[in-house]
Every structure is written in C-alpha cells, then in structure tokens.
Amino acid sequence: MNILLLGSGGREHAIAFKIAQSPLCKSLYIAPGNAGTAAVGENVSLDMSDFPAVGRFVLDHHVDMLVVGPEAPLVAGIADYFKATPELSQVLVVGPCKEGARLEGSKDYAKAFMMRHKIPTARYQTFTRETLADAEAFLDTLLAPYVLKADGLAAGKGVLIEPDLATAKAHLREMLDGKFGAASASVVIEEYLSGIELSVFVLTDGQHYLLLPSAKDYKRIGEDDTGLNTGGMGSISPVPFADKEFMKKVEERIVKPTVRGLRDEKIDYHGFIFVGLMCCNGDPYVIEYNVRMGDPETESVFPRIKSDVVELLEHTARGTLDRASLTVDQRSAACVMMVAGGYPEAYEKGKVITLGEENADVLVFHCGTKMNDEGQLLTNGGRVICTTALAATLPEAILKSYNRAHSITWDGKYLRHDIGQDLLKLMAL
Ligand code: AMP
Ligand code: GLY
User: Is the peptide bond before 238 cis (omega within 30 degrees of 0)?
Assistant: First the structure.
C-alpha cells in the first residue's frame, strides 16, 4: 500500500524506518520529513495544516493510508476532514478525530474524561478569570508545591510547578490574564503527585487495544534533571520498575477504562494514546494524555516492535485490532538525543554534521536535519539527531548508544551524559 506520514522529527524517522521495513509498504511519503526520512521514503513538501493540499496529494498519489505523527493536525481535525470529504473518506487514517484529540488539546477535557471513567489522576479543579477568587481558595486547600496547567496547547510550556502559595497565586493571575494567550483562559489547578514518571503507549481502534512498550524520557536540558524543559533529551525502553505487576495495574486501572470510555462516549479513535504516568508508591496516576506517540520515546519504543508495523496500523485504522498481535524485542533500548548549542533557548541552524563511522548495531534517527544542494548534512532544528542502541542489558544499551553518539559531531553539539542513570540507580537499590 501507499502511505503518507505527516511530521518531520525523530519520531517520524523512527516510524518511517519501521514502515519501510514492511513488505506491505509499496511507496512511503513523508511530509515534510527530514534528511533521515529521505533515506527510507520520499519527502514531500506539504503544509500539514493545509488539509485540502494534503487531500490533493493523497488522491494524486493513490495514498491508501495516512499516518499522523504530531498532535496539531489531529487537534485541528484532519481525521474528521478526511471522513467528511467523499473522495477521501475511504482513505485509512491513523490518528483520532477532533473530539478524541481533545484529550491532549484540553487539560480540562482530559481531567473530566478521567473523572467520568474513574481513572486515577491528581485531584483538580478548573478556573477562569471570573472564578479567580474560587481558584485562590482552592489553592489554599492544597499543599506545596502547586501545579498550574494552561487548559489548551501551549507548546509544552503551559505547566507551572510553583514552590509556594504566593508565587502560585501571582502566576495563576498572569495565566488567566493571557500569559499563554487563549490556551490559559482556563487553568487547571491540581494536586502535586510525588513519584517517578514514565510513559505507556497504547494503539487502539476505539474498541480494542494493544499495549506497546513503556518508556521514560528525560525532559530537562541539564544533567540530573535540571534546567529548562526541552522536547526530550533521550529515552529508555522498557522502564525497569514497570514490571508485570505494575503494568497490570496500568492496564486494569487506566488503559481498559480509557478505551472503554472512548467506546462508550462514541469517540472515533483510531490511533495512539500516550499516557504520561506518575508512579506513586507503586500505584499509577495519569498526569496527561497525548494523542500521538512521544518524541523521543518513539525512537526507543519502535525499534523494539518486531511485528509488521504497517499491519498494526492498518488494523488500527480499519477497526480490526483484535486480529493483530504484538511481538516485542525483549532487549533494552537507549536513545540519546543530540541538540544544537543554546537549545531550548535561541540556537543556530545550518551547522555541518559529521556522522562518524556507521555501526550496523546502532540506529541513527534524524530530528532537525536537512541536506543542502551540495549533499552536506546540516542542522535544521533544536533537537538534531539521536542514536538508539538495543542490548541484552540496559547498561550495555546505554554504553553502545553513547559510543555512537560521541562519533557524531558539529559545531555546538550538546548532549546529556546521564540518560538512564537514574533507572540504573533504582535497579541497584
Ligand atoms: P504535562 O504537560 O501535563 O505533562 O506536565 C508537564 C510536566 O509537569 C510533567 O511531565 C510532570 O513532570 C509535571 N507534572 C504535571 N502534573 C503534575 C502533578 N500533578 N504532579 C507532579 N508533577 C506534575
Ligand atoms: N517526550 C514527550 C512528548 O513527546 O511529549
């Protein structure tokens, strides 16, 4: 079949890499893609927010399946557009409809969904400018630190964790006064959950589901999780403490009620659910839902999937996921992200990348890269490139991934040296 994948990051390179391995894939297009995806398919210059343009490409190139990488087109309703356009309605789409995408697009919607379906999450209330006094009174009932969340999409910056009540109240007012534009016209205030974070990924056709491998990402720019938040500086899969017993709790208390909730509410959902979890004393609580795969979690999760990914995605889109099965590589995967100097603040693009010696054993996924007319590989984003190694043990996977990462160079390259170290320490306890 002919497949169009939307997106341009490391997540899309990892997905494209697995799609291209399938004998079911005839042509793979990636829009807009990066220099890495160009090696496993054909990059096309399409604006993914221009649904009619995406639709025209799909018709002109006889695309059978559309796979949506990032959340923005889903929140804007690309799946609904395909369904409602007669000549596109037969195209298979992996990615939820607009209503389903609200699980990521609105924190208040996601929390209310969890309440309706009795899914464990932090206690919360949602407020607007009109209910500021109630919001402050609610803050008074909570203990520090205080968690304030802009309701809408705020480019990953809309969550504030405040150490004291006065700062929390001041920042709450700023948020309601438009700190994050329309995204913070409503603010969710919730109880702080103390524990270890991890992510669980679900593939669902809205009725059935498959539980994909767990992963942990490293969000801060600095070692020991210090400094500014980033898109993610590395990932590990599986998460060693997410053992059978813990995953059983996740499945029974969170995954099953989530999928049942989507079904009972007749929400058309064919795609990924990324469940951000906090493990508090061995019990899982939902921190957030995303309606796509994570980046860079995909770069450690997808290489572990042994099943034919196109077959899995086709069953997802068709609603026949009960006929699919998942085989997972039992080895550990470690992904190390390399970023441009200065990221996540201002950084330069266009630096020449030297890829170093290839090692068949370690995957290299491109994030922000492009090829210039002279065939030089250039940096083209904050997160530039990452390495993923699989090995029988986590320490070996980490070592292999770092060895390869150190052989990739450009002016200003930065990486964290402690990806996975927290998990190794926990395992040693
Ligand atoms: P979110 O955008 O909802 O994932 O929040 C961003 C980050 O804030 C999460 O990855 C957590 O590290 C942290 N966070 C969010 N909600 C809570 C909470 N209720 N308790 C503790 N940390 C939280
Ligand atoms: N790595 C976190 C995310 O993709 O949102």
Answer: yes
